[in-house]
## 1
Amino acid sequence: MSIDSILFYLFAVIILGSAIMTITRRNVVHSAIWLIGALVGVAGLYLLQGAEFLAGVQIIVYIGGITVLFLFVIMLVPVREEALTHRFSSQKWIAVFCSVVVLVILMAFVVHGGGSLEFPTREAPLEPGSLTKNSEEVGYVLFSEYLLPFELASILLLVAIIGAVVMSKTRKSETES
Amino acid sequence: MEELLSSPYLPPLVATLLIIALFPLVAGYMVLAERKVLADLQVRLGPMRVGPYGALQPLADALKLMLKEDIIPSGADKWVFWMAPVLSTFTALSAFAVLPLSDKFYVADVNIGILFILAMSSIGALGLILGGWSSNSKYSLMGSLRAAAQMVSYEVPLGFATVTGIMCAGTLSMQGIIQAQYERGVWGAFDNYLLMLIPTVLFIIAGTAETNRAPFDLPEAESEIVAGFHTEYSGFRFALYFLAEYAAIFVISGICVTLFFGGWLRPFPNVGFLETPLNVGLPVVLFAAIALACIKGATRQIITGFKLGMFGLAGAALLLAALFAVPVINPLIVGLFWFLAKVAVLVYMFIWYRGTFPRFRYDQLMDVGWKWLIPMSLGGLIVNSIAQMLARS
């Protein structure tokens, strides 16, 4: 096994294990902590693919921003007892059906592409500086080829920010009156 | 053995081990320096009992913290309580991996260097939040809520100031940023017709807040919430939190030096005739002056052991001065000297703020962050990009 495949399966185990722990923990904060594990694993996979910019941004945005906000909200909002006891909904059979379908599809992939489970070994270790300038590349593509989607996403975010400000403003005036 | 010595992984490994082994000692002496400087600002003497002029105080403190009973509160979430300080220390020390300590001595020069440090510092915030939550104490929870709000708010201006610096240098690699400053012939702080001073000042302010230092030390405000997020911690875990805090201060100062103050470059790196006076003369004179001060201090000591200790320190300083005078060794260590000297100035300033400014109130903290720092850092980014465009065209 090459080091790439070892790392891939290591990250895969981290992601899947943490994801299972995330949905099965009774304590919400523990769930959030396991979610961090899954997100770190995904960052590791990005790194393995040579997308180090994406890996860095994944950690900054998802762990530094979103998970911190999750924890912030969890600590502020008291969790009701019944929400903790009834964790799994009654749609059990639909879930089982969906899982079986996904399993069959995945098994088909595994059976047909058995050879691709192992990464090819690299002949020589990468020279320092031989990697393409990943972050610069992302910037060029984003601002040339995908300028329109980029700007649309910016406008969407702007609208969301204004909406959040408006909503918090109205609530404040209601409590004052 | 031959293969091992020529392995490309050997220098980073050695550098990593050196940093991990030495940094706790450095952090201990940063604490001593802080206590001494604060004492001086408040016209006191500071620690004087352990060793000559209190020079062995960090070792005594470290020993005390290691031997102390490690108490876990009965209502605490043990697993998270155990993990939180480890997470803080781990992330703070990992950030050293991309810090360009000198042109020869660094662990790795990756092309997302600065992103990596920002990522590590954002994970470090989790250590504070989880530590406070898992203690199951209201003071700790208050502290960790404050830490979360503060870090999320001040990460934004810190990020914008960093982006401005990166834009000026044109690369994310830490060594590349220093190289760019050498090629442009000016420190980042004074680039773009002094317009870069805006992000420099904002970076220092936001960095102070990001490391939870006074006047932004609300997460551990001792006069309001005992000790904030680490109220319930004792013994070695408490020491880990302190180690993480001082590592974070060192790393933030290190990024600031790299982005805005030329990293390991000497001042005026492009002025040729200053090479010898600054690279050889200044360190030699500095360390010789330290040796003289140590000898003068030794004559005032009454206990023979302390007297010998001070003479020993003087000898070490003289040895360093002699090393900088040797032409073969000088180029190897002078980069490290400049980097550490600049970091030391910034760390001194951090201590100075603590001795000078009163703590912010919570609403003032949020006002400063959202209403002043973020718009100003955005403005700084726009102004600097326009200046850069005009200079290029």
Note: The radius of gyration of chain B is 22 Å.
## 2
Amino acid sequence: MAKVFIYPATSLILSDLVARFNHKPLGAALGIRERIQTAGIDSPPLQITPEEPKRGLKYAAVEVPSGVRGRMAIYGPLIEEAEAAVIVTDADLAFGCMGCARTDELILFSLRQSGIPILELKYPTSDEEGIRFVAAIKKFLTGLPDGGEA
Amino acid sequence: MSQKVRIAQLSCGPEYSGVQKEIYDAAEAVGAEIFFPDIALADVERAVEGFGLDVRSADLKLMIARGMALVDGKVDADGVFIGTCFRCAEAAIVRNELRRYIPGHSKLPVVSYSFTERTTSGTLLTRMEALTTIARRRALLAREEQTGITMGVDSGSSTTKAVVMKDNEIAGTGWHPTTEVLKSADSAVSDALEMAGVTREDLQAIGTTGYGRFLVGKHLEADLIQEELTVNSKGAVYLADHQHGTSTVIDIGGMDNKAISVIDGIPGTFTMGGICAGASGRFLEMTAKRLGVDITELGPLAMKGLGRNVPMNSYCIVFGTQSLVNALAAGSSREDVAAAACHSVAEQVFEQQLQEIDIKEPVIMVGGTSLIEGLVYAMGQLLQTEVVVPPHSQYIGAVGSALLASGFVKGE
């Protein structure tokens, strides 16, 4: 079993796919709802305190906005823990999304710098692309240590 | 208990900055409630396309969609709070454009703020209070004449001012440095009453404003305790005799600066800065002290000098003062140094605050610093307009309070 970071971290579909192939998904475990009645699209379920942006200083300098550092306080340790990553770019909001594009840039950069195996895919826009999309993820996850359908 | 004022929050980053609770607390403290306009995910991209600002952050897209829903009347609110992370350029663009778009297309009052993890509810309190005042006290803010005998007290960070008004005229004034808040207020009140030739018992209503408004208001058993954004706007257009139409009010205070875009005496958009002392009246006080003149002499001195002859390499109150000291040591005249200090403060307010509101003429400068003519001149040069300084401009908060308090005179 490998620890696989998923991006967008809020994608329940990616989280489910990773778990189906016997790995541990590292993400936010947040569902994106059809209606948004919270402060942000990826609002955290628990109150984050002003301490989180300070902890985030490990991943981003003080001139980086506090919202980025607060997110990095959560995702930074997960990236450090990750043994592989699946990244889906240009995703539809409903597939899963992160509220802050600047954090996205830093997360993707950190993952690419980490040296772990990474599968990067564009979000599919047709049925055919969708089939190839799932097949590529399946192949990647199966190839990871102890990977296989659960 | 009166119904809570509903403030729509449009924001990016407050939860992950750890300050959402502070926003809730500030709203709660002034009898308001924060809510997030309910938006369908499917509508977000459509709204962003309609708005025409192509941003990448999903929460900024959500802000735009929510702003448009408020303007379109799909969501009801009494006011709007726009907040984004400090130092985020993408968010600053969205915040700015929404701050222009919402008042431009609706009657909703808007306040915006860029926060860090250090932002507290106390920092947001006056802004939230102004939003609720505009929503809740529109009828009171529409008052154009003072009636009866009323008193206004402005308990500011540097000075405490009191004004007694009688039948739409200023009858007495009092002005004391703020040391012990209540003692300073009592002294200012005592002077104002004596000058007006009336006693406390003659007063039909009392209003308080400024930093110490709650403490002084309780002490004086005030009828009206109200933040300085709405009070100063009202006082400014009243004293400048420009109660109708648009105007811009600038108040460079001892601890913070206010820039308010006013429509018919009521703030539309406003900013309140208070992070940097180099942009405050305090810097001018320090300059006057260094030059060995009284603060009242700084303005005339500055008018005789040329600010551009003195290199100012920093806006910081410490390093800025150092620049002035260096200039004096290098042979610059005191007049040039005084002018440079005035220009530095005006330029900083111009660059950091006045860009955040729509400047509409007349531009009215108020507060104690409006008596420093070098500062008023520098602001006029930067804005390329003639700045109006109404009579009694240093008593602006006290006058506004006395005027609005007359709404509480019995029989009104």
Note: The longest strand of chain B covers residues 169-177.
